[in-house]
Design a protein that fits this description.
This protein has 23 helices and 13 strands. By secondary structure, the protein is an alpha/beta fold. The strands form three sheets. It has a six-stranded mixed sheet with strand order 6-11-10-9-8-7. This is AFG1-like ATPase.
Length: about 575
């Protein structure tokens, strides 16, 4: 049984250590995301130095991937300059095209006025226009074939007057890395991501859950801004209402503008993609890099949203780096939205180099072998373990000072999650509280971002009887790991037996197992599909998650591997430097 002083020492080390590097790879690799740009070298150079200094075990598969990242890294600086020049030309082209579009519309309206088109219109038109401007109701405009033809003709004239859109520079091929649990995919991607700091202006790194939630949020925001009654009226009035023309002409112009907006609303995914990676703090545009950890396709929304947004990003010059446990063509084994998915994969294979890390070694376990005994994963659920858990909670909360209170965290879309006990970056929950209720990735991300040390008690052995809870627990572990939280827990079994099933049933029923859960975030995604009129045809389960037993086996293996690594002194050292809580305190 570990002593209280052992975990206290480790947590203090993680929260007050200076800049000491340890003999292992996790902290070293992930710290590249926050390293000093002036001191950052290329991915292969960094990898070679870590091997040379004994901080990494040499692996030929990892070295091959690091070399591919180095080649990509070497091309990015020139591509950034090309994209900066491209965006300047694009901005000028868009400005000129919009000026010409408005001029053409006014000319069309004036010609209609000369032809007497407005003669039959009465005062009702003025009332409609007044309501439009004041925002009391939306104008009802029937598009019709005539309006569509008019719109296309105008676009063709603009092409001839302004010229075609500037050509996008050829982007370097991205990388799609796949392989087994713990083989180093995320480590190598993080090395690359850290190396691009200061070089690439618009770059983002997402885990799957976080990316899907951001897509949800952006889509809802877009509908709110562009679909609400008052969303576009003032922008219309800013150039239409001040024109020295008849009111009937203004009404026609407003109708044409509204029709253009209706067409835009039908292409929401490209619109969301265009703002997905933009650095809001930077007014200057340039290249963009998206690092996507553990890409997967668990439901119809993921297929549709990822296909639409990723395809747009790849087409507009974004360099994609992705990791997964599967090759691209094996991602969608359930065949959901197959036509949409296949088009996306074809584009991905064209724009990315596909590399397999063939190593069978789980380096998280290798690193854990040289660590101290498990000091904060306590088992079994005996009286002595429960007492030890309580002692740890008291000592850690005393260490950080302050009163233990409840808290309410904002999640998204106005939702909140309650935290029963918390104290200065430390929080405590039961397994049932976090995984026995309809919570999802959004809730777990909110918790993981807010607390650097999290206590979870009474974790049971997983079985088919509690498979929904098991899947939520896996999502929870993913987010705690992604945000580099310190996890202290009490459980029924050791880690390697946690996901093996119980007398009530194994978790690996490959013939009949289909994981289906209706968590809060999946309901949100279902709402998004419904509001956006995105078809779920061909998938009877619609938005419900459908993961095969094989997929679950991989998820369980990944969770166990991460739980093991999260106990090591090496991992705990990174808490102080990598957790968002400490960045917010600066």
């Amino acid at each position: 049984m570990p002593k209280v002083s052992q975990i206290s020492t480790l947590i203090r080390l993680g929260c007050s250590s200076s800049r000491r590097l340890s003999n292992g790879f996790h902290f070293i690799a992930r710290s590249y995301c926050t390293s000093d740009p002036a001191k950052t070298s290329g991915p292969l150079t960094s990898y070679s130095k870590l091997v040379e200094h004994g901080r990494l075990q040499h692996d030929p598969y990892q070295e091959k991937v690091a070399s591919a990242f180095e080649n990509l890294f070497g091309r990015l600086e020139h591509f950034e300059k090309e994209m900066e020049d491209y965006h300047l030309r694009l901005e000028e082209w868009e400005k000129k095209r919009e000026e010409e579009r408005r001029r053409l519309m006014v000319e069309e309206a004036e010609k209609k006025e000369e032809d007497g088109m407005w003669a039959s219109m009465n005062k009702q038109g003025q009332k409609l226009l007044g309501r439009w401007v004041l925002g009391r109701r939306q104008m009802s405009v029937e598009p019709g074939v005539g309006k569509w033809v008019s719109y296309l003709n105008r676009e063709r004239k603009l092409d001839s007057l302004v010229g075609s859109r500037p050509a996008i520079p050829q982007a370097p091929k991205g990388l799609y890395i796949y392989g087994n649990v713990g083989c180093g995919k995320t480590m190598l991607m993080d090395m690359f991501y850290g190396a691009t700091d200061g070089m690439i202006r618009h770059r983002q790194r997402f885990h799957f859950h976080e990316a899907m939630l951001k897509i949800n949020e952006q889509m809802h925001k877009y509908w709110k801004e562009n679909g609400a009654e008052k969303s576009s009226q003032y922008s219309i009035s800013s150039w239409i209402m001040n024109l020295p023309v008849d009111e009937k002409v203004k009404e026609w112009l407003a109708g044409e503008e509204f029709y253009k907006q209706q067409l835009t609303m039908k292409h929401i995914l490209p619109a969301v993609a265009d703002k997905f990676l933009v650095d809001k703090q930077s007014s200057k545009k340039g290249a963009s890099v998206l690092c996507f950890d553990e890409i997967q396709t668990v439901d119809v929304f993921a297929i549709v949203a990822l296909s639409g947004i990723m395809s747009r990003l790849l087409t507009t010059g974004t360099v994609l780096v992705a990791t997964s446990n599967r090759a691209p063509r094996e991602l969608n084994q359930d065949g959901m939205q197959k036509e949409i998915f296949d088009k996306f994969i074809t584009k991905l294979e064209k724009r990315c180099e596909i590399i397999s890390i063939g190593s069978e070694v789980d380096y998280r376990r290798v690193g854990a072998k040289n660590s101290v005994e498990n000091v904060h994963y306590l088992w079994p659920l005996s009286n002595s373990v429960l007492e030890e858990f309580e002692n740890l909670w008291r000592q850690v909360t005393d260490q950080y000072g302050g009163e233990v209170t409840s808290a309410t965290l904002p999640v998204m879309f106005g939702r909140t999650v309650e935290v029963p006990e918390s104290c200065n970056g430390v929080a405590r929950f039961t397994f049932e509280y976090l995984c026995g209720r309809p919570l999802g990735a959004a809730d777990y991300i909110a918790v993981a971002k807010s607390y650097h040390t999290i206590f979870i008690s009474e974790i049971p052995a997983m079985s088919m009887e509690i498979r929904d809870k098991a899947r939520r627990f896996i999502t929870l572990v993913d987010e705690l790991y992604n945000h580099h939280c310190c996890l202290v827990s009490s459980a029924e079994t050791p880690i390697d037996e946690l996901f093996q099933g119980t007398a009530e049933g194994t978790l690996f029923d490959l013939e009949s197992f289909q994981f289906e859960t209706e968590t809060e975030d999946s309901r949100l995604r279902r709402d998004v599909l419904a509001e956006g009129s995105i078809s779920a045809a061909g998938s009877p389960s619609s938005i419900v998650k459908m993961l095969s037993g094989e997929e679950e086996m991989f998820a369980f293996a990944r969770a166990a591997s991460r739980l093991i690594e999260m106990q090591t002194p090496l991992y705990l050292e990174g808490v102080r430097f990598l957790h968002p809580y400490f960045h917010q305190q600066k």
